[in-house]
Design a protein that fits this description.
alpha+beta, 2 domains, 13 strands, 13-stranded mixed sheet
Length: 429
C-alpha cells in the first residue's frame, strides 16, 4: 500500500487521495498540487470562486470527520496503554492576551469527571468539537476569575480586550500514576504538573477572590504565563531538568487537531524534502492533521508499542491498518532527536475511514524535544525561521512582488481554504 503513495506524490494524499476519499477526485487535492508546483516555480496562483467553494466544502467535511473521530480514537488508545483505569484529562490552551501589553499564555483546564462529555458533544455554531470545548472552557475560566486579585499582581483580564487562542491540546493521564500531582482535595496541582508536559518559559500568576465573611484572599485559579518584558511575575515556575524529568513516574498521551494546515503546507511548498526511510516517499504527504502523542518510560517500551501498531491490530472497537513507520531512533535527526512516528488508517462507526499519526517518545526524548526550552531540538524552532529561502521569483508577472509578499499571497489562499491559526475570544467586563 505504501508504494501507491510514492506514485501519487501529493501532499494531501492521506486525506484526499482516492484511497481515502471514496475513489473520488478531490478539488482540495488538485489545488494543493497546483499551488505547490507554482510556488516552486516562483509563480503566483489564483483560485476561482467555484473551485474555492468546492475545496472548502471538502475540507470542512474532512475536518468534521477527523474531529468527530478524535475522542473515540484517543479513548481506545488510552485503554490499550493504561487499561480501563481511571483517567484524568487536562486541556492546555496556548494563546495571547491582547491589551495594554500582549502576554503569551498557557491556560490549563481540568476536563476530568463530568466535563469529559464535552469532548464528544458537538454544538451548533462551531466548526468542530475541538473549537467548541476550547472556546467554552476559556470563556468559563474568564467568567470565573474576574474578581479581585492579590494587590501585588496584575489583573490581566481588566487590561485585555481579547484572548487569541493559538493551540489547544488534550492530555490523558492514568490517575494512580499522577498521585504526586494531585492535592488532598482531589484537584490537579497545575503548577506542578504543567511544566512536566509543556515548555515553561514562565512565571505563575495566581488569581484570588475575596472571602465575603472575613475579607481574606482565597486562591481561585492558576494561569501559566510566559515571561514577557514588563510582565509582573508573582512566583517562578521552572522547567524540570533532564534528571528531574527522568525521575518522574508517570506516562501520558495527548491529542490535537490542527486548526489550520497553512503553516505546514507553506513549509512543504518551500522545502523539497528527501527522506532516508524506505517506507516514506521522498516528498511525503501530510499525515498529522490530527495526531496523538504517546510518552512512555523508555526506548524499549517505545519500540514495543511501535511494533504492536505495525501489526495492524484491533484497538478497542477500532480496526487499525498500518500504513508506514518513520523510525527516528534508527535514524535520528541531525540534532539528535529521536521518536517513532506511525501512520495508521482506521474507521469508526460514525466517521468512516480516517488517517491518524501516532508519535511515540520515551521520557528523555520528550524532555529534549519539547520541555527543555534551551534544547536545539526544541519542537517549533523551524517555525521561527523565515520561509522563502529557496523560492526563486519568476519573471512571468511577479516583478512587483517581493519574496515575502509572494509567500504572504500563498498564505492568504491557504487560509481561505483551511482557515486561520488563531481563534479570538473577546473579553467583556
Amino acid at each position: 500500500m505504501v508504494q501507491s503513495y510514492n506514485k501519487e506524490h501529493n501532499l494531501m494524499d492521506f486525506y484526499f487521495g482516492k484511497s481515502f476519499y471514496k475513489g473520488k477526485n478531490s478539488k482540495a487535492r488538485d489545488i494543493v498540487r497546483d499551488m505547490k508546483n507554482n510556488f516552486q516555480r516562483g509563480l503566483t496562483y489564483k483560485i476561482s470562486k467555484e473551485d474555492m467553494k468546492k475545496a472548502r466544502d471538502e475540507i470542512k467535511k474532512k475536518r468534521k470527520i477527523l474531529d468527530t473521530s478524535t475522542y473515540e480514537f484517543s479513548q481506545s488508545l488510552y485503554n490499550q496503554i493504561f487499561g480501563r483505569k481511571k483517567k484524568r484529562i487536562v486541556m492546555l490552551v496556548g494563546g495571547t492576551f491582547y491589551g495594554e501589553e500582549n502576554i503569551k499564555t498557557v491556560l490549563p483546564i481540568d476536563l476530568s469527571g463530568n466535563r469529559e462529555h464535552y469532548l464528544h458533544t458537538k454544538q451548533s455554531g462551531y466548526s468542530t468539537i475541538d473549537e467548541y470545548v476550547t472556546r467554552k472552557m476559556v470563556r468559563t475560566a474568564f467568567d470565573n476569575h474576574q474578581g479581585n486579585i492579590d494587590s501585588g499582581g496584575v489583573d490581566i483580564l481588566r487590561k485585555s480586550s481579547s484572548f487569541g487562542i493559538n493551540t489547544s491540546k488534550f492530555f490523558y493521564f492514568e490517575e494512580d500514576e499522577i498521585q504526586d500531582y494531585i492535592g488532598e482535595d482531589g484537584q490537579i496541582i497545575m503548577k506542578k504538573l504543567v511544566p512536566m508536559i509543556s515548555p515553561v518559559q514562565s512565571g505563575l500568576v495566581l488569581k484570588y477572590i475575596k472571602d465575603e465573611n472575613d475579607g481574606t484572599l482565597k486562591e481561585a485559579s492558576r494561569l501559566m504565563l510566559s515571561r514577557n518584558e514588563g510582565n509582573i511575575v508573582l512566583e517562578d515556575v521552572k522547567s524540570p531538568t533532564a534528571e528531574e524529568y527522568r525521575g518522574s513516574n508517570f506516562r501520558f498521551m495527548s491529542s490535537r487537531l490542527k486548526q489550520t494546515l497553512t503553516a505546514k503546507l507553506i513549509k512543504k511548498f518551500d522545502f523539497k524534502t528527501t527522506c532516508p526511510w524506505e517506507t516514506y516517499p521522498k516528498e511525503y504527504p501530510i499525515n498529522d492533521w490530527t495526531a496523538n502523542r504517546v510518552i512512555l518510560a523508555d526506548e524499549k517500551e517505545v519500540r514495543e508499542f511501535g511494533d504492536y501498531l505495525k501489526k495492524s491490530p484491533k484497538l478497542g472497537n477500532l480496526d487499525l491498518e498500518w500504513l508506514l513507520t518513520r523510525d527516528l531512533y534508527a535514524s535520528p535527526k541531525p540534532n539528535g532527536f529521536k521518536m517513532i512516528k506511525v501512520v495508521v488508517s482506521t474507521s469508526t462507526m460514525r466517521t468512516g475511514k480516517v488517517t491518524r499519526e501516532i508519535q511515540i517518545f520515551d521520557k528523555e526524548q520528550y524532555h529534549y524535544g519539547y520541555i527543555d526550552t534551551a534544547s536545539n531540538a526544541r519542537h517549533g524552532l523551524y517555525k521561527e525561521k523565515q520561509l522563502g529561502g529557496k523560492v526563486k521569483m519568476s519573471d512571468q508577472g511577479n516583478s512587483q512582488l517581493s519574496k515575502q509578499e509572494f509567500i504572504d499571497d500563498y498564505k492568504r489562499n491557504l487560509e481561505s481554504l483551511f482557515g486561520r491559526q488563531e481563534l479570538t475570544e473577546p473579553i467583556k467586563l
